[in-house]
From TrEMBL:
Mg(2+) binds at E210, E213, H214. InterPro entries: SAM-dependent_MTases_sf, UbiG_MeTrfase. O-methyltransferase required for two non-consecutive steps during ubiquinone biosynthesis. Catalyzes the 2 O-methylation of 3,4-dihydroxy-5-(all-trans-polyprenyl)benzoic acid into 4-hydroxy-3-methoxy-5-(all-trans-polyprenyl)benzoic acid. Also catalyzes the last step of ubiquinone biosynthesis by mediating methylation of 3-demethylubiquinone into ubiquinone. Also able to mediate the methylation of 3-demethylubiquinol into ubiquinol. Its cofactor is Mg(2+). One of its GO terms (molecular function) is 3-demethylubiquinol 3-O-methyltransferase activity. NCBIfam families: UbiG (TIGR01983). Component of a multi-subunit COQ enzyme complex, composed of at least COQ3, COQ4, COQ5, COQ6, COQ7 and COQ9. It is a peripheral membrane protein. This is Ubiquinone biosynthesis O-methyltransferase, mitochondrial. Keywords: Magnesium, Membrane, Metal-binding, Methyltransferase, Mitochondrion, Mitochondrion inner membrane, S-adenosyl-L-methionine, Transferase, Ubiquinone biosynthesis. GO terms for cellular component: extrinsic component of mitochondrial inner membrane. The lineage of its organism: Eukaryota, Fungi, Dikarya, Ascomycota, Saccharomycotina. Its EC number is 2.1.1.-, 2.1.1.114, 2.1.1.64. Belongs to the class I-like SAM-binding methyltransferase superfamily. UbiG/COQ3 family.
């Protein structure tokens, strides 16, 4: 339990910060970028912080245990989104062979009929997946490889490339990967910013989880990532809304009361509201925000969907449509 003077100090700190932070974190290109060598850079303090965590990255009960728990919901979000958006009747010429997709909720139907429709749809999804080329994935800000390894183990994935700016954390990722020979040819790790990736490299899926709130220019990271997305490819991101509730749950409770997140991991002024990301993509007609889900951590249950993407943490799925 933290001492009361620290509580008061933290409350004063957030009050001061919230009064100074702009109501919007600008995602557009800043003039400062003209003087930056790497537009997706993070501060040295951020890098030092994550380097210090490298040795315990794969300790499921250690400082990164919150990420290990969140990874279950990350994977559910990615896999369910991909599966839900598989076209069931693409290329079907005979109307009689089409899978029935009602324009209303299946919950309105009797259970027996509902189950029959769901079974037919899921069988068709399995068939389509078995015939699809395997995914090539880029994991930006891969850290110690928690998500990278989970993605690589999926039978639908051909390869995953993980990139990060932390030398020590990437070393932890490489060491853990070496423990499983099955991952040798499926995962590659590189120390580099996204803009150093060859322009010719294109991916079916790009992931950026718990990463945008740690970079100086999030719009540049997003723009660079999108340039490497194949037609009909997917970008999956997660970050945190910039509000009092987020400060209270992720910083005050997470870092100072429950001690489930290492102190100094988060900075309220770098959080990005879900509405800001939505507005940014509205100016990009070649991309569509397909899904956005709020999520929250319950100490005795783990990570769950909250039903409100405008408060706290959130996941977002974006698809290239042009």
């Amino acid at each position: 339990m933290i001492k009361s003077p620290n509580v008061v100090r933290q409350l004063k700190h957030v009050s001061r910060i919230t009064s100074q932070i702009s109501s919007k974190r600008l995602l557009s290109t800043s003039p400062i970028l003209r003087h930056q060598d790497k537009k997706t850079s993070t501060s040295q303090d951020e890098m030092d912080h994550f380097n210090q965590l490298a040795s315990t990255w794969w300790d499921v009960n250690g400082p990164q245990r919150i990420l290990h728990k969140m990874n279950l919901l990350r994977m559910d979000f990615i896999q369910s989104t991909l599966r839900e958006n598989i076209p069931l009747n693409e290329g079907v010429l005979n109307k009689e062979e089409e899978i029935y997709v009602p324009g209303y909720s299946l919950d309105l139907l009797p259970e027996q009929i509902r189950n029959a429709i769901v079974h037919e749809q899921e069988s068709k999804r399995d068939q389509v997946i078995s015939q699809m080329p395997k995914y090539k994935i880029l994991d930006i800000g891969c850290g110690g490889g928690i998500l990278t390894e989970s993605l690589a183990r999926l039978p639908t994935v051909e390869s995953v490339k993980g990139i990060d700016l932390s030398t020590d954390v990437l070393e932890a990722a490489k060491l853990h990967k070496a423990l499983d020979p099955a991952l040798t040819d499926k995962i590659s790790y590189q120390l580099m910013p996204i803009e150093d990736i060859s322009k010719s490299e294109k991916y079916d899926i790009i992931t950026m989880f718990e990463m945008l709130e740690h970079v100086n220019f999030p719009s540049e990271v997003l723009g660079s990532a999108l340039s490497h997305l194949k037609p009909n490819g997917w970008l999956f991101i997660s970050t945190i809304n910039r509000d009092f509730i987020s400060w209270f749950t992720t910083i005050f409770m997470g870092e100072y009361v429950l001690n489930i997140v290492p102190k100094g991991t988060h900075h309220l002024e770098k959080y990005i509201n879900e509405s800001e990301v939505q507005d940014w993509f509205k100016e990009k007609p070649q991309f569509e925000v397909v899904k956005s889900e709020g999520c929250m951590y319950l100490p005795f249950k783990g990570w769950v969907y909250s039903g409100n993407a405008s408060v706290g943490n959130y996941f977002m799925a974006i698809r290239r449509v042009k």
